Amino acid sequence: MNFVVAFMGEAQPIIDFYQLKKTQHTQYSLYQNDQHSLVISGLGRENASTATRYLGNLAGSQNLGWINIGVAGHGNLAKGEVFICGKIEDDQKDECFYPPQVFNHSICVSSLTTCSKPAVEYEKEMGYDMEAHAFYKTASQFSIRELVQVIKIVSDNPSSPLPEFNPKDAPGMIGRHLRQIDGLIGQMEQASASLQPDVEINSFCKKIEGVHRFSVTRSHQLHQLVRQAKNLRVDMCEIEQITLSSANAKEVVQKVAELLKPYQILG
Amino acid sequence: MIDTIYIEDGVVGHSRSEKIIARFPNASVIRCKHYKEIFNPSAQSFRLQKKKPALILARQTGTLIHPIPPSYGVGGGQNYYFSHLLNCLYDCRYCFLQGMYPSAHYLLFVNYEDFQEEILKTCKLSDEPSWFFSGYDCDSLALESVTGFAEHFLPFFRELPNAWVELRTKSVAIKVMENCTPFANAVIAFSFTPHEVSKQLEHGVPSVEARIMAMSKLAKKGWKVGLRIDPLIECTDFEHRYEQLFRNIFEKVPQNAVHSVSLGAFRMPQGFYKKIEKHYPEEPLFAGSFSNQKGAMAYPEKTEERLKGICQKLLLQWIDPVKLFTCETS
Questions:
Q1: Yes or no, beta carbons of B32 and A98 under 8 Å apart
Q2: Of A67, B50, B159, B198, which is most buried, counting CB atoms within 10 Å of its CB?
Q3: What is the reported pTM?
Q4: Is any Cβ of chain A less than 8 angstroms from the Cβ of B300?
């Protein structure tokens, strides 16, 4: 999971919960363990976008989970309540995002507007922050939209406006919800894993490609056939034997295609 | 069942929207300017959304009635389809919808009256009866409890002597038809594959047995029923399985209630096929012997002819040849 968080006070409970370690001294503070990375972006759209891009480029793989967590104002939710964003607007742009809510959770869903300045007026059913829109726009270039989510904890509302908020309260407010958020993170990670390339197929093909010289087209055909063979539960040893007894890549592809034919009728 | 409802600003307050939203008091309701903001963006996962689709309430302002190719009809000269709903409650692995739409959310167009107005206009274009097919981009009945589609459209078609309507379905939600008097120009058409194929490919669909029972009930009540053997799927013991399926159907459904039977082999535009294969890379169906036939991914011509030939022979033991129609791969 990739976390993008504006301030250290918001990041600390996540760092503690997942036992993340500071890993690099770069332009951003980066905390990681085997599964998760967290970058502290700083305030505002620009910082959120560049920190997200930085983390995306660092991660290398597509379709990983992304979450922006932080505190936010809200028009009617109580201070300390958690919400997940179902719609993200921006006070300077027309473009809206609608993070698809495909996972099971009991977190309240709300709209949110990303603002240039801290919001002082509150609309009902609306949250206010300064990063989410830019985060979502950038993170969804690295992953499918279902795997990019924004979760906020209410720091201020009409009855308790922003000047009354003490940033020192942020770690405790966020920490209280991490167990619940972790349930969602687990589902997102599972979904992300299901979208990753099949390592088994790739390493098997690499082995075959080590025996003969495969052009790009033939390599593509081989991957396709090996994937089909796996789906049809064909014994992979047979493909290895075909590879060894064939004179070249073309013959391998032809013979594997022949091998699959009897299996191709649905059971 | 529905946790998230998106609603276009333009249909907020529409009586049908209000009624639907009231059915799901715990759903989050999110407003949008246009359904395309949610339905159309790229980089959405159809597969993930299919696990928990949202409902989008919108107004169809584009084309409401579409012509269909002549080879897809069931005897009529003027053939059209219309879609009040895009996407389906069920999850059939062979379904082209998985490749056609970027989103698996249910997109419901609540402006039924605009569809009806367009149907009336279309009927006036020809002296011969026009056929209106529902169930190409959705299942006509599966979401009836939410949409009230059949409840609204059947009385409308009952009063249209120059129009036929076909509701195509795999659902057993037939209460609306059970509670009203049948009429001559409506066909309730059920799609089938053999039980063994259905179990592997038609996820969330009522059992073959339950569908036959529903079909039988409607036939006995006096509704004309249709049988849609589409797509034909090549499978182990093909002839025996299809023979058994037809026997099970025609032992329960009186032949004189059957308006038509149509047959079509698996076929899909290549672009859709590739997308679906990416969504479900582990699916054995897509390791089948399909290849590009006239622009569509389909069985080789000989295989297709063989499968159709077997089913035609089996079906003609039960029905009059004039009731049998075949859909061609094109």
A1: yes
A2: A67
A3: 0.95
A4: no
